[in-house]
Automatic annotation (TrEMBL):
Protein name from the UniProt record: DUF1774-domain-containing protein
Keywords, ordered alphabetically: Membrane, Transmembrane, Transmembrane helix
InterPro entries tied to this protein: DUF1774_fun (IPR013920)
Organism domain of life: Eukaryota
Record bears the keyword Lipoprotein: no
Residue intervals passing through the bilayer: 20-41, 72-90, 97-120, 152-175, 187-206, 211-229, 235-254
């Protein structure tokens, strides 16, 4: 008996799998929303010294800290966009349902990872939350490269949006875990910030993915604004603004080429004529 691989990409999904996805996708999404709202307003009661979700970020000033207002807006927009992804699972169009179902298992894992991260982060378990983010990043990276050609709203809400978050959050959480607020820590951060640029630009350019680019632009802008507030005489905020600009300009360029139907060098993309059109002169001659 063949085993069922929930991570496999399929053109169609059986009714049992779809029913499971239609239950667990909105359920885990709701868990993230409820837990996120709760810990944004309350500190953990079972841990001494625990902090609210965003207050924890403001408490630790690191070279990778983000502006909690901007990042909070990012998360609100991301969670709202994920409602569109949930809707795709209930669509009457088979292609949309299949596309959404193909990443459903990854999306459920994404929500479980975010849920676990919030619980650990607010309770000062920074190394545990870092491990969760690393696992989360691996899951999103696999999803990103394995599932291409998804509808825009599926790609944004289930793939690119969470992927961009994990890429930046790993450094933020890691900096808190190692207490990276002193001079040696800032020097190391001045180097590691370029990893975000390298990974991001590689993904954006190779995949021609302006959606990921805009997500990373949003989060690196948040990073830059927070770094200015933390330490004005420093390189980190300058680097962050440069990376933000690179992501934004690259994304604008790629989206414009797609809009005007051109390639990466802005040359017109030639579309092959249909077989019937190619055979038409021959048919006319035969006639």
């Amino acid at each position: 008996m063949a085993t069922y691989n929930p991570f496999a990409r399929r053109e169609t999904h059986n009714a049992h799998a779809l029913n499971l996805y239609r239950v667990f996708v909105p359920l885990t999404w709701a868990v993230v929303v409820i837990v996120g709202i709760y810990y944004s307003l309350h500190s953990p009661d079972d841990t001494k010294g625990g902090k609210k979700l965003w207050k924890q970020g403001n408490k630790h000033n690191t070279p990778f800290s983000q502006n909690t207002t901007v990042t909070g807006i990012y998360w609100i927009l991301l969670l709202l966009s994920q409602l569109s992804y949930v809707w795709h699972l209930f669509s009457k169009e088979t292609a949309l349902v299949a596309a959404a179902a193909n990443v459903a298992t990854h999306f459920i894992l994404n929500n479980l990872f975010v849920f676990a991260w919030i619980l650990l982060w607010t309770r000062n378990h920074f190394w545990g939350s870092e491990i969760i983010l690393i696992a989360h990043f691996i899951n999103q990276a696999i999803t990103y490269w394995r599932h291409q050609g998804l509808p825009a709203f599926v790609h944004l809400s289930a793939v690119a949006g969470p992927y961009a978050w994990t890429l930046t959050a790993i450094f933020w959480n890691g900096a808190v875990a190692v207490n990276s607020h002193n001079l040696p820590g800032r020097i190391v951060a001045n180097i590691f910030i370029w990893v975000i640029l390298l990974v991001g630009v590689f993904d954006i350019v190779v995949r021609q993915d302006y959606i990921l680019g805009y997500c990373l632009s949003f989060l690196t802008l948040s990073l830059a604004l927070r770094q200015v507030a933390i330490k004005i005489i420093a390189l980190q905020w300058i680097f962050a603004f440069v990376i933000f600009a690179v992501f934004l300009v690259t994304s604008l360029y790629i989206s414009s080429t797609k809009y005007y139907g051109r390639d990466s060098l802005f040359r017109s993309v030639a579309h092959p004529e249909s077989t019937d059109r190619e055979r038409q002169p021959l048919l006319n001659e035969e006639a």
